[in-house]
Specification:
Strand order of the largest sheet: 1-2-3-4-5-6-7-8-9-10-11-12-13-14
Order of helices and strands: HEEEEEEEEEEEEEEH
Strand content: over 45%
Distance between the termini: 58 Å
Number of helices: 2
Largest sheet: 14 strands, antiparallel, barrel
Radius of gyration: 19 Å
């Protein structure tokens, strides 16, 4: 059976498009957290972070989507993040540090204070606390506790988070690390 040239051309173009489309994350966009207490991964490229436990998108000063099965709706500025995760409040104060951010306040109804810097991640956000030291650019190793005993943990932060406005960066870090 002969196929028209346009059908063959369309099929060839479709195959070429599939061959050039990669399912691999953009370099510098991957978040990974691995611990005996659980793991999480997400690709944060452009205005969104997506993975099995997170699907959020930033538009202007709004970040909306899902974190686990909870709706996220926050407004960001360079000094604060306000809104909600599910029915729980988010009220975070954001301050720059020499080599990172200090995030303090309430996230999803939980009080916390988190410092994310080039050399460490320390403090509490959501239901998890961290004591991690840098192993390389955007790579950290140490302990995390989410309501139990501290567990050995490895975290890779997306390097492209540094390109985001300070409030968006703080909101995304809180979501990714909150457990």
């Amino acid at each position: 059976m002969k196929r028209p040239l346009t059908t063959l051309l369309a099929a060839a173009l479709g195959l070429a498009a599939c061959a050039t489309t990669s399912s691999q994350p953009v370099e510098g966009s991957q978040f990974d957290l691995s611990s005996r207490g659980g793991s999480m991964s997400a690709s944060c490229s452009g205005a969104s972070c997506t993975g099995p436990q997170i699907s959020v998108r930033a538009e202007g000063n709004q970040v909306r989507g899902l974190l686990g099965n909870q709706a996220v709706n926050v407004t960001t500025s360079d000094k604060e993040v306000k809104g909600s995760v599910g029915s729980e409040p988010v009220q975070l104060q954001v301050r720059p540090q020499v080599d990172g951010l200090s995030i303090n306040g309430t996230f999803a109804g939980q009080l916390g204070s988190l410092q994310v810097a080039d050399q460490y991640i320390q403090g509490r956000v959501g239901r998890c606390s961290y004591d991690l030291k840098a192993e390389g650019p955007n790579r950290y190793r140490g302990n995390r506790s989410c309501g139990g005993l501290p567990q050995p943990t490895f975290v890779t932060l997306p390097s492209n988070l540094a390109e985001k406005p300070q409030g968006q960066r703080a909101a995304l870090l809180a979501m990714l690390l909150s457990g």
